[in-house]
């Protein structure tokens, strides 16, 4: 017999091509043109691409050189994070007019729990439409939204009618929707996992649902349990207004490759300072310091050390970073250095939850 679990009304708001859209907003002459926010085609990496650039295959995390090859008319603009943060703050202030249960994922997206909301509006679909209209009116930017019974489904739904659209998956349509969904569309299933599922004959949610819990855990470890539940519409994670970071980091790409450790130490001094500032902002400290090295041929190497005590101070971070840098000989010249701190003193405890029950839909709940 199926049991019932609480159904929430969750909205996932995702700004459309946020960084690029801000640049086009502030410089109208860039509207309608292929645009990449990043360090340029010589050395940089694309942080964001406008929809005009995406038509050519340009996407985030791509090298500027490759992006320029795909789109010769591509315009590169340097990122202005202070401006993005300024607009993000305005957008979040709009969210808080509707609910206090807001969980930001980044500057351009957030989850909102509107099961009980400040407008006392029963329809999450209407609320999402109103929030998007407010964002457009007050910032000039477009946002997309997904609305459903949990965070997982809302996140998937927000991508369906992008850009400048929204999608509601009401309780009575959840199971059918998940069965027809391509597994590549499942939030949390990346390219490598998708390829592994393809090899196992799993292409859609229906085929994923046909696999037993034992089969999925055998092939995907702990993640298998997650896949088993989400394809049944079960995702109990609540919207958490204050997300606890698992790690904090900072990195820098250089305009010219570095081959001398002396120059690298100078760069690490600045990176350690930036990392320390971020740690203090989050009011956390950590024990595990990781040095990230990206070589000129794009190979990435990481070196870590766990200390017996928590640190957040720049000098202590830099001291360990220096030790990690000289730990072994560098393999080539270096184009990027990064530092991160994990094993944080957040006091976060992993809760052992009982296996969630099968989903029983509530057909009369207004969405």
TrEMBL record:
Residues involved in Mg(2+) binding: 14, 108
This protein's UniProt keywords: Cytoplasm, DNA damage, DNA repair, DNA replication, DNA-binding, DNA-directed DNA polymerase, Magnesium, Metal-binding, Mutator protein, Nucleotidyltransferase, Transferase
Compositionally biased region (Basic and acidic residues): 347-367
Main location: cytoplasm
Active-site residues, as the UniProt record annotates them: 109
Residues under site feature: Substrate discrimination: 19
Catalytic activity: DNA(n) + a 2'-deoxyribonucleoside 5'-triphosphate = DNA(n+1) + diphosphate
Pfam families with a match to the protein in the record: IMS (PF00817), IMS_C (PF11799), IMS_HHH (PF11798)
Region (Disordered): 346-367
Cofactor binding note of this UniProt entry: Binds 2 magnesium ions per subunit.
The organism's place on the tree of life at top rank: Bacteria
Required cofactor(s): Mg(2+)
One GO cellular component, as annotated: cytosol
GO-annotated molecular function: damaged DNA binding; DNA-directed DNA polymerase activity; magnesium ion binding
Domain (UmuC): residue spans on this chain: 10-190
Assembly information from the UniProt record: Monomer.
Physiological role: Poorly processive, error-prone DNA polymerase involved in untargeted mutagenesis. Copies undamaged DNA at stalled replication forks, which arise in vivo from mismatched or misaligned primer ends. These misaligned primers can be extended by PolIV. Exhibits no 3'-5' exonuclease (proofreading) activity. May be involved in translesional synthesis, in conjunction with the beta clamp from PolIII.
Family: Belongs to the DNA polymerase type-Y family.
Name this polypeptide is given: DNA polymerase IV
Taxonomic source organism: Robertkochia marina
